[in-house]
Prior knowledge:
The structure holds two protein chains of two kinds.
Chain A: H1 2-11, E1 31-42, E2 45-56, E3 60-64, H2 71-77, E4 88-96, E5 99-100, H3 108-114, E6 115-118, H4 129-140, H5 146-159, H6 163-166, H7 179-191, E7 197-201, H8 209-222, E8 227-231, H9 235-241, E9 244-249, E10 252-258, H10 259-264, H11 269-275
Helix pairs in contact in A: 4-5, 4-7, 5-7, 7-8
Chain B: H1 2-26, H2 41-78, H3 81-84, H4 89-104, H5 114-152, H6 159-199, H7 202-207, E1 211-212, E2 227-228, H8 231-262, H9 265-280, H10 283-304, H11 314-339, H12 342-350, H13 355-384, H14 387-392, H15 410-418, H16 427-457
Antiparallel strand pairs in B: 1-2
Helix pairs in contact in B: 1-2, 1-5, 2-5, 2-6, 4-5, 6-16, 8-11, 8-13, 9-11, 10-11, 11-13, 12-13, 13-16, 15-16
Amino acid sequence: MLAMNNLIEERQQPVSTEFTGTVGDISISNPRMTTRNVDVHYGDKHAIMDVSLDIGRHEVLSLIGPSGCGKSTFLRCLNRMNDTIDICRVTGQIKLDDQDIYDKNLDVVPLRAQVGMVFQKPNPFPKSIYDNIAYGPRIHGLAEDQTELDGIVEGSLHRAGLWDEVKDRLHQPGTGLSGGQQQRLCIARTIAVSPEVILMDEPCSALDPIATAKIEALIDELRQNFTIVIVTHSMQQAARVSQRTAYFHLGRLIEVGQTEDIFTNPQHKLTEDYITGRFG
Amino acid sequence: MQSTTLILILLAVMAVAFQLGRRRAFNLPGLSSIRELHSLPIYHGFYAAIWCGIPALLALALWSSFQTPIISQLLMNNLPATLTAGLSEAELGLLLNDIRNLAAGNITSGDISDELVTAADHYNHLQQVGFSSQTGVVFILTLLGATLGWRFISPELRARNKVERLLRWLLLISSTIAILCTAGIIFSVLFESVRFFEMIPLTDFIFGLQWSPQIAIRADQVGSSGAFGAIPLFTGTLLISLIAMLVAVPIGLMAAIYLSEYASPQLRTYAKPLLEILAGIPTVVYGFFAALTVAPMIRNSAAQFGVDASSESALAAGLVMGVMLIPFISSLSDDVINAVPQAMRDASYGLGATRSETILQVVIPAALPGIVGSILLAASRAIGETMIVVMAAGLSANLTANPLDSVTTVTVQIVTLLVGDQEFDSPKTLAAFALGLLLFLITLVLNVVALRVVRKYREAYE
């Protein structure tokens, strides 16, 4: 009876929903990106509070949490996409390979080529499939001649697993593809400029399960060459594709750890409530 | 006049019928709640009003269009043979007009004979009878319609669907009217043009290099024989429009890009209406500005370079017209550029494109149809603009490509041809219609070509 009581005591260990600092190890050896004490304000709204987190090389880090918890905002800090929003103010330190990306002297344009982004809704340009992929290489002058550009386009489509489906209609509009194909086209477009990090903001939320499965398999493959940060609402997806998981709640980073640990043995009460489906 | 009164009365009756129908739906016997009605009472009201008004209005319209010819016919048959003997059809028409004028108390063309007075009295009498019976018919139809409408109203009546159907007809009629008006304008111009081309050969008109529409009206008059070559006018129009578009398109487009992509929201809320004020300035005022400020300026600065410039120049008119057109292009283009989804820009920024790369390669192609639309609108304004050209570019039909020369345009010539005392069947007057027709055809072709081009190159984002 006593032993039973003890067991219950132990099971209920994470009881407090209070936040007293991020649970788990935020740092990682030899990180690709490091963020320290990041705060984000949208006008008067404090969207991200004091978040510190490392992002490792060749890992998939998933950011989970209920809607409005700041995970997408955090993601958009990593390639300064928040710059396009006038009222957004970012403080703290974010580094990519020891380079402070919010440094005044840093040019944001090459940064965004290094840290690519895939959006929630597939957003191919209203151009041909070929021109969609070639857009980035063209503006950055990555190809010396047409043959090289052709090679980049074909290579990117291959790596995005789209080549076989579109090789006969490269010059038809990218907007004519299905939703899943469009999203893979967007991933191919991002790969084409050879980024180091790829940020994905709920890339599968507009797709059906089959298209989702294809993208997830693609993410797993891309890990060989890229660092990937993915925001997702699907905990199964986070569990399937990521090595580390970070749980955000109301602008704070509550808990971070190996994906297995987060899903089998969450330390913080809020994390446990979320992944067991008590809210969110 | 009398029909107008009748229509006003009918509209008032319809309003009353609406109220009555609505009330009746509320107070139908055995109705405990309006939920038992198929349609809301307001639809029953509309339904009653329609029954009350539409048949009567239709009858009124038909009656009005047939009354005049019928009365004329009756009058004609009753005229004494002494009046009509040996008159041609045109003279008969004139006689009829005289009778009408006499009846209305206006001045007639000839002496007033007793027969004419009798006829006028008879005409008045016919009019009176016509109007009384018209009123009677309308009154009966209104009453009949109201009774029917009243009786049809019941809980099961699908008044909502019926009103809906009538609304569809109304919309159809509206669009038909718009199309018919266009056709009417084209035909009225076309028929007069045909008369013109009976006098002046088509080839002389289209390919002639000389425009000098003055012709001798009397045989003994000293005047030129008249030359109706339209080419100098069209080159003049083209030259001035080209100058105007060269000013308006780059400035307007860049202003639109600045406003939509770079300007802060506060600046935009002030700058955009300020720009649109330009569109509200009357063209006469632009004309002053062109003739009194810009044209002398051009002449003086040309003189400094030792170039001879006429004081009324195509350049002055074109420049000022360009200024006038800026808001057309900037305002419309700004709207279409804003309508390009943010996701397109995000995608481009996310790939490391700069703002100008994004605008040039993503935003503009996506907004192209709307931008071309705004340019087309501005171009047709430029081609149709008259006032600025009259005041600043002159009236002499020079065939020249020199913007410092004075030129004239098609629209200006149309105005000068139709102003003043002219016989309506002289080629000089009729030339205006031929010019109008040709101008219409050219702008039509321009529009069709532009639409084709847009369809080919547009990048649809949805």
